[in-house]
Amino acid sequence: MTIRLYDTATRDVRDFEPLEAGRAGIYVCGLTVQSEPHVGHVRSGVNFDVLARWLTHRGYDVTLIRNVTDIDDKILAKAAEQGRPWYNLAAAMHRQLDAAYTALNVAPPTYEPAATGHVPEMLELIEELIGKGHAYAAEDGSGDVYFDVRSWPAYGELTRQGIDDMEAAGDADPRGKRDPRDFALWKGAKPTEPITATWPSPWGRGRPGWHIECSAMAGKYLGPAFDIHGGGVDLRFPHHENEQAQSRAAGRPFASFWLHNAWITTAGEKMSKSLGNSLTIPAVLERYRGIELRYYLLSAHYRSHVEFSFEALDEAAVGFRRIETFLAKAPAATDDARLGELPEAFAAAMDDDLGTPAALAVLFDTVREGNRAEDPRPHAARVRAMLDVLGLDPADPVWATGGGREVERLTGAVDALVGALLEQRQQARAAKDFATADAVRDQLQSAGIEVEDTPDGPKWSLG
Ligand SMILES: Nc1ncnc2c1ncn2[C@@H]1O[C@H](COP(=O)(O)OP(=O)(O)OP(=O)(O)O)[C@@H](O)[C@H]1O
Ligand SMILES: [Zn+2]
């Protein structure tokens, strides 16, 4: 019954032993809100949502933090290109990301801190690092502050690299640095950048470096030591190496486990906006339901790369519909969903580093047995229990709208129907047939629709 997880730092599967019995603190690097989310972007959201659900199922009180990076070079550059304020772009993309998570039934984290809301915590940490001799203000007058990698002998421990073999940090003018690998904790304001993207600091106006954001926010919400740090595998270096170095250099033990999910690829390459091989979530939701996409993402182990294709997604959707067909045939079991026991083999697969492919194989075995059984209901109850813990129970009201485009389509359909009824009401009124007009209004009201008469005509809303 022990959960075992692959720790990227120790490179082995280890028993999950929380710092505090019965509790699990998890920090997952969220996205930089700069463009519409694509399938690769949401993978970590889905994977870590399942981790949180499984730990919760195993009795842990889970605190999950997933941040939002809402200030960054890329956001500034894109907003400038589009001729809009950077915070307008960040807010719009954040809303799109939220919609994508909702469509995929990714539960909101316990807290979702935004970088721009935590600049004082970042400044405090930077000053602490300077005080301890691990960071310095650049002498070139740029207002930059760097982490001094040579002052921290353990630098490179997460990714097992020696300093001399490492790439230079590409985040600022190397002239102000003591070593090209020193990375920016604080970036002095540049005259070309909007003043709204800068905050006052002891080194002049500027903005935080990306790495310090996560260290400061993890520290604020989870304390100096916490259980699990997660993110996409590409974040291991430099982002996570730097997060760990600066946190530990400040005397914070930081994460006990590092978990990294692999990529979604297209033709073997990481799906990426800049490579032009990405597919946005709304584009996928035009053709598939959110539950089918979630199922597809979970049918691979989180540490395996997933080669995205519509053929594979099609196949997954057909597989998922087989489960739904089985459940539809055993409807009496619906109310038993939470009562079904999880098969031991399913739980064992999940305990073993969140083995969702093996867990889904158990689920399909149960469906097959249920299809052959005289009374399929106990099987259906077990299938529902398994789906539920994966956030895939089709009976869960979160899926009622199908998510994404489905909501728009439903709203459009309701609007047309309400419009027709309101037209009838207007005609009845014009004919002074107030009994009919009132009856229409009552009918709408009993369907939960409020009608308000405005100078522009009647308007409806869900009451
Ligand atoms: N194809 C992918 N598969 C899994 N995770 C991904 C993928 N692409 C991006 N991510 C995750 O999303 C986050 C943002 O990554 P990144 O900025 O590289 O994405 P992008 O928007 O596609 O990049 P680009 O600037 O190349 O357009 C990271 O946490 C990364 O791990
Ligand atoms: Zn991070």
TrEMBL record:
<dbReference type="InterPro" id="IPR015803">
    <property type="entry name" value="Cys-tRNA-ligase"/>
</dbReference>
<dbReference type="InterPro" id="IPR009080">
    <property type="entry name" value="tRNAsynth_Ia_anticodon-bd"/>
</dbReference>
<dbReference type="Pfam" id="PF09190">
    <property type="entry name" value="DALR_2"/>
</dbReference>
<feature type="binding site">
    <location>
        <position position="29"/>
    </location>
    <ligand>
        <name>Zn(2+)</name>
    </ligand>
</feature>
<feature type="binding site">
    <location>
        <position position="243"/>
    </location>
    <ligand>
        <name>Zn(2+)</name>
    </ligand>
</feature>
<feature type="domain" description="Cysteinyl-tRNA synthetase class Ia DALR">
    <location>
        <begin position="345"/>
        <end position="398"/>
    </location>
</feature>
<keyword id="KW-0436">Ligase</keyword>
<keyword id="KW-0963">Cytoplasm</keyword>
<protein>
    <recommendedName>
        <fullName>Cysteine--tRNA ligase</fullName>
        <ecNumber>6.1.1.16</ecNumber>
    </recommendedName>
</protein>
<keyword id="KW-0862">Zinc</keyword>
<dbReference type="InterPro" id="IPR056411">
    <property type="entry name" value="CysS_C"/>
</dbReference>
<dbReference type="Pfam" id="PF23493">
    <property type="entry name" value="CysS_C"/>
</dbReference>
<keyword id="KW-0030">Aminoacyl-tRNA synthetase</keyword>
<dbReference type="Pfam" id="PF01406">
    <property type="entry name" value="tRNA-synt_1e"/>
</dbReference>
<comment type="similarity">
    <text>Belongs to the class-I aminoacyl-tRNA synthetase family.</text>
</comment>
<keyword id="KW-0479">Metal-binding</keyword>
<dbReference type="InterPro" id="IPR024909">
    <property type="entry name" value="Cys-tRNA/MSH_ligase"/>
</dbReference>
<dbReference type="InterPro" id="IPR014729">
    <property type="entry name" value="Rossmann-like_a/b/a_fold"/>
</dbReference>
<keyword id="KW-0067">ATP-binding</keyword>
<keyword id="KW-0648">Protein biosynthesis</keyword>
<keyword id="KW-0547">Nucleotide-binding</keyword>
<feature type="binding site">
    <location>
        <position position="239"/>
    </location>
    <ligand>
        <name>Zn(2+)</name>
    </ligand>
</feature>
<dbReference type="GO" id="GO:0016874">
    <property type="term" value="F:ligase activity"/>
</dbReference>
<dbReference type="InterPro" id="IPR032678">
    <property type="entry name" value="tRNA-synt_1_cat_dom"/>
</dbReference>
<feature type="short sequence motif" description="'HIGH' region">
    <location>
        <begin position="31"/>
        <end position="41"/>
    </location>
</feature>
<feature type="binding site">
    <location>
        <position position="214"/>
    </location>
    <ligand>
        <name>Zn(2+)</name>
    </ligand>
</feature>
<feature type="binding site">
    <location>
        <position position="273"/>
    </location>
    <ligand>
        <name>ATP</name>
    </ligand>
</feature>
<dbReference type="InterPro" id="IPR015273">
    <property type="entry name" value="Cys-tRNA-synt_Ia_DALR"/>
</dbReference>
<comment type="subunit">
    <text>Monomer.</text>
</comment>
<feature type="short sequence motif" description="'KMSKS' region">
    <location>
        <begin position="270"/>
        <end position="274"/>
    </location>
</feature>
